[in-house]
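Bump. Still looking for Endonuclease/exonuclease/phosphatase family protein C-alpha coordinates.
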Amino acid sequence: MTLRVLSYNVHRWGDDRTALARVVRACAPDVMLVQEAPTWFGTRRKRRAMAATFGLRYVAASARNAILVADGIHLGGIRGRRIWRPFVRRRLNFVATQLPGGAVGGVLQAGPTRLAVVVCHLGLHPRGRQHELAQVLRLCRSFGTPYLLAGDLNEEPDGPIWNRLTAEGLTDLGDAFTFSSSNPHKRIDTAQLEPPLTGHLLPVPATHEDLAAASDHLPLLIQVTG
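Sorry for the wait, here they are.
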Protein backbone atom coordinates (compact mmCIF):
# COMPACT_ATOMS: atom_id res chain seq x y z
CA MET A 1 0.00 0.00 0.00
CA THR A 2 1.16 3.49 -0.88
CA LEU A 3 -1.12 6.27 0.29
CA ARG A 4 -0.86 10.05 -0.09
CA VAL A 5 -2.38 11.94 2.83
CA LEU A 6 -2.62 15.72 3.05
CA SER A 7 -2.98 17.29 6.51
CA TYR A 8 -3.98 20.96 6.29
CA ASN A 9 -5.35 23.68 8.54
CA VAL A 10 -7.44 25.55 5.96
CA HIS A 11 -8.22 28.57 8.21
CA ARG A 12 -11.99 28.08 7.99
CA TRP A 13 -11.84 28.22 4.15
CA GLY A 14 -11.69 31.97 4.63
CA ASP A 15 -8.60 33.03 2.70
CA ASP A 16 -7.90 32.74 -1.04
CA ARG A 17 -10.08 29.77 -2.03
CA THR A 18 -8.72 29.61 -5.56
CA ALA A 19 -5.13 29.41 -4.30
CA LEU A 20 -6.13 26.79 -1.73
CA ALA A 21 -7.74 24.65 -4.43
CA ARG A 22 -4.59 24.87 -6.55
CA VAL A 23 -2.45 23.75 -3.61
CA VAL A 24 -4.65 20.76 -2.77
CA ARG A 25 -5.07 19.64 -6.38
CA ALA A 26 -1.29 19.87 -6.93
CA CYS A 27 -0.79 17.58 -3.91
CA ALA A 28 -3.25 15.03 -5.38
CA PRO A 29 -4.05 13.37 -2.03
CA ASP A 30 -5.93 10.10 -1.62
CA VAL A 31 -7.08 11.38 1.78
CA MET A 32 -7.18 14.92 3.17
CA LEU A 33 -7.26 15.53 6.92
CA VAL A 34 -8.68 19.02 7.46
CA GLN A 35 -8.38 21.26 10.49
CA GLU A 36 -10.50 24.40 10.82
CA ALA A 37 -13.04 23.22 8.29
CA PRO A 38 -15.81 25.78 7.62
CA THR A 39 -18.64 25.72 10.14
CA TRP A 40 -21.66 27.62 11.47
CA PHE A 41 -24.54 28.15 9.06
CA GLY A 42 -24.70 25.54 6.30
CA THR A 43 -21.76 23.57 7.67
CA ARG A 44 -22.21 20.42 5.57
CA ARG A 45 -23.05 22.38 2.43
CA LYS A 46 -19.90 24.49 2.83
CA ARG A 47 -17.72 21.45 3.45
CA ARG A 48 -19.09 19.58 0.43
CA ALA A 49 -18.57 22.69 -1.68
CA MET A 50 -15.01 23.05 -0.40
CA ALA A 51 -14.26 19.37 -1.11
CA ALA A 52 -15.63 19.74 -4.65
CA THR A 53 -13.17 22.56 -5.39
CA PHE A 54 -10.39 20.14 -4.42
CA GLY A 55 -11.78 17.27 -6.52
CA LEU A 56 -12.49 15.30 -3.32
CA ARG A 57 -15.50 14.00 -1.36
CA TYR A 58 -16.47 15.03 2.18
CA VAL A 59 -17.04 11.86 4.24
CA ALA A 60 -16.64 12.57 7.96
CA ALA A 61 -16.22 15.29 10.58
CA SER A 62 -16.13 16.12 14.26
CA ALA A 63 -16.18 19.72 15.46
CA ARG A 64 -13.94 21.62 13.02
CA ASN A 65 -12.00 18.57 11.81
CA ALA A 66 -13.01 16.80 8.60
CA ILE A 67 -11.88 13.97 6.34
CA LEU A 68 -12.09 14.19 2.55
CA VAL A 69 -11.24 11.35 0.15
CA ALA A 70 -10.52 10.92 -3.55
CA ASP A 71 -12.68 8.83 -5.85
CA GLY A 72 -12.06 5.14 -5.33
CA ILE A 73 -11.01 5.55 -1.69
CA HIS A 74 -13.32 4.02 0.91
CA LEU A 75 -13.10 5.04 4.55
CA GLY A 76 -14.82 2.59 6.87
CA GLY A 77 -15.45 2.33 10.60
CA ILE A 78 -15.72 6.09 10.96
CA ARG A 79 -15.66 7.36 14.55
CA GLY A 80 -15.76 10.89 15.82
CA ARG A 81 -15.20 12.17 19.33
CA ARG A 82 -16.12 15.46 20.90
CA ILE A 83 -13.10 16.55 22.90
CA TRP A 84 -13.41 18.22 26.30
CA ARG A 85 -11.33 21.36 26.67
CA PRO A 86 -11.33 24.26 29.16
CA PHE A 87 -13.85 26.89 28.08
CA VAL A 88 -11.75 29.80 29.32
CA ARG A 89 -8.10 30.33 28.51
CA ARG A 90 -6.09 32.89 30.47
CA ARG A 91 -2.66 34.23 29.64
CA LEU A 92 -1.37 37.21 31.57
CA ASN A 93 -4.19 39.77 31.26
CA PHE A 94 -5.68 38.12 28.19
CA VAL A 95 -8.86 36.05 28.61
CA ALA A 96 -10.43 34.13 25.73
CA THR A 97 -13.05 31.42 25.29
CA GLN A 98 -12.59 28.19 23.34
CA LEU A 99 -15.13 26.23 21.34
CA PRO A 100 -15.40 22.47 22.05
CA GLY A 101 -12.82 20.37 20.24
CA GLY A 102 -13.05 17.13 18.35
CA ALA A 103 -11.23 14.39 16.50
CA VAL A 104 -12.39 12.04 13.77
CA GLY A 105 -10.94 8.98 12.09
CA GLY A 106 -11.66 5.93 9.99
CA VAL A 107 -9.99 2.85 8.52
CA LEU A 108 -8.57 2.38 5.03
CA GLN A 109 -7.86 -1.08 3.63
CA ALA A 110 -5.57 -1.86 0.70
CA GLY A 111 -5.16 -5.61 0.22
CA PRO A 112 -4.07 -7.08 3.56
CA THR A 113 -2.99 -3.70 4.94
CA ARG A 114 -5.26 -1.72 7.26
CA LEU A 115 -4.53 1.83 8.37
CA ALA A 116 -6.55 4.17 10.55
CA VAL A 117 -6.28 7.89 9.82
CA VAL A 118 -7.16 10.37 12.58
CA VAL A 119 -7.21 14.17 12.50
CA CYS A 120 -7.25 16.52 15.49
CA HIS A 121 -6.78 20.18 16.38
CA LEU A 122 -5.71 20.79 19.96
CA GLY A 123 -6.68 23.92 21.86
CA LEU A 124 -4.85 26.97 23.15
CA HIS A 125 -4.91 26.10 26.88
CA PRO A 126 -1.44 24.62 27.69
CA ARG A 127 -2.55 22.17 30.38
CA GLY A 128 -5.85 21.52 28.63
CA ARG A 129 -4.00 20.22 25.56
CA GLN A 130 -2.62 17.32 27.58
CA HIS A 131 -6.14 16.18 28.53
CA GLU A 132 -7.25 16.63 24.92
CA LEU A 133 -4.41 14.48 23.59
CA ALA A 134 -5.27 11.68 26.02
CA GLN A 135 -8.78 11.62 24.54
CA VAL A 136 -7.43 11.70 20.98
CA LEU A 137 -5.07 8.78 21.65
CA ARG A 138 -7.94 6.73 23.07
CA LEU A 139 -9.77 7.27 19.78
CA CYS A 140 -6.67 6.25 17.81
CA ARG A 141 -6.28 3.01 19.78
CA SER A 142 -9.97 2.16 19.44
CA PHE A 143 -9.50 1.23 15.76
CA GLY A 144 -7.28 -1.72 16.70
CA THR A 145 -4.91 -1.16 13.77
CA PRO A 146 -1.81 0.93 13.06
CA TYR A 147 -2.76 4.56 12.67
CA LEU A 148 -1.65 7.89 11.27
CA LEU A 149 -2.41 10.83 13.56
CA ALA A 150 -2.11 14.28 12.00
CA GLY A 151 -3.19 17.76 12.92
CA ASP A 152 -2.55 21.12 14.49
CA LEU A 153 -1.06 20.72 17.99
CA ASN A 154 -0.83 24.45 18.80
CA GLU A 155 2.47 23.64 20.51
CA GLU A 156 6.12 23.56 19.48
CA PRO A 157 8.25 20.39 19.77
CA ASP A 158 9.79 21.19 23.16
CA GLY A 159 6.37 20.88 24.83
CA PRO A 160 4.72 18.02 26.75
CA ILE A 161 2.39 17.08 23.89
CA TRP A 162 5.30 16.09 21.67
CA ASN A 163 6.90 14.19 24.55
CA ARG A 164 3.68 12.24 25.05
CA LEU A 165 3.55 11.31 21.37
CA THR A 166 7.12 10.04 21.58
CA ALA A 167 6.27 8.01 24.69
CA GLU A 168 3.36 6.46 22.77
CA GLY A 169 5.92 4.93 20.38
CA LEU A 170 4.85 6.93 17.34
CA THR A 171 7.18 7.88 14.51
CA ASP A 172 7.45 11.62 13.88
CA LEU A 173 7.44 11.93 10.09
CA GLY A 174 9.13 15.28 9.71
CA ASP A 175 10.42 18.52 11.12
CA ALA A 176 9.02 21.13 8.71
CA PHE A 177 8.02 24.57 9.94
CA THR A 178 4.30 25.05 9.31
CA PHE A 179 3.36 28.45 10.72
CA SER A 180 2.96 31.03 9.47
CA SER A 181 2.55 30.29 5.77
CA SER A 182 4.07 33.63 4.76
CA ASN A 183 6.96 33.40 7.24
CA PRO A 184 7.38 29.79 8.45
CA HIS A 185 9.17 29.85 11.79
CA LYS A 186 7.13 27.57 14.08
CA ARG A 187 6.47 23.87 13.97
CA ILE A 188 2.99 23.38 15.44
CA ASP A 189 1.52 20.82 13.00
CA THR A 190 2.50 17.19 12.93
CA ALA A 191 2.11 13.78 11.31
CA GLN A 192 2.74 10.79 13.58
CA LEU A 193 2.65 7.17 12.39
CA GLU A 194 2.36 3.99 14.44
CA PRO A 195 4.77 1.18 13.45
CA PRO A 196 5.11 -1.15 11.66
CA LEU A 197 3.87 1.10 8.87
CA THR A 198 6.42 3.54 7.49
CA GLY A 199 6.12 6.94 5.89
CA HIS A 200 7.72 10.29 5.20
CA LEU A 201 6.87 13.84 4.23
CA LEU A 202 6.86 14.79 0.57
CA PRO A 203 7.65 18.24 -0.82
CA VAL A 204 4.48 20.25 -1.38
CA PRO A 205 4.29 20.99 -5.13
CA ALA A 206 2.91 24.52 -4.84
CA THR A 207 4.24 28.03 -5.21
CA HIS A 208 5.18 30.19 -2.24
CA GLU A 209 2.57 32.71 -3.38
CA ASP A 210 -0.24 30.17 -3.41
CA LEU A 211 0.78 28.71 -0.05
CA ALA A 212 0.88 32.15 1.59
CA ALA A 213 -2.50 33.11 0.14
CA ALA A 214 -4.33 29.82 0.75
CA SER A 215 -4.18 29.64 4.58
CA ASP A 216 -2.18 30.85 7.57
CA HIS A 217 -0.68 27.33 7.93
CA LEU A 218 1.42 25.25 5.55
CA PRO A 219 0.21 21.75 4.71
CA LEU A 220 1.92 18.44 5.40
CA LEU A 221 1.94 15.99 2.47
CA ILE A 222 2.53 12.48 3.77
CA GLN A 223 3.32 9.26 1.98
CA VAL A 224 2.48 6.11 3.93
CA THR A 225 3.79 2.72 2.82
CA GLY A 226 2.60 -0.61 4.11
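The longest strand covers residues 101-110.

Edit: fixed formatting.
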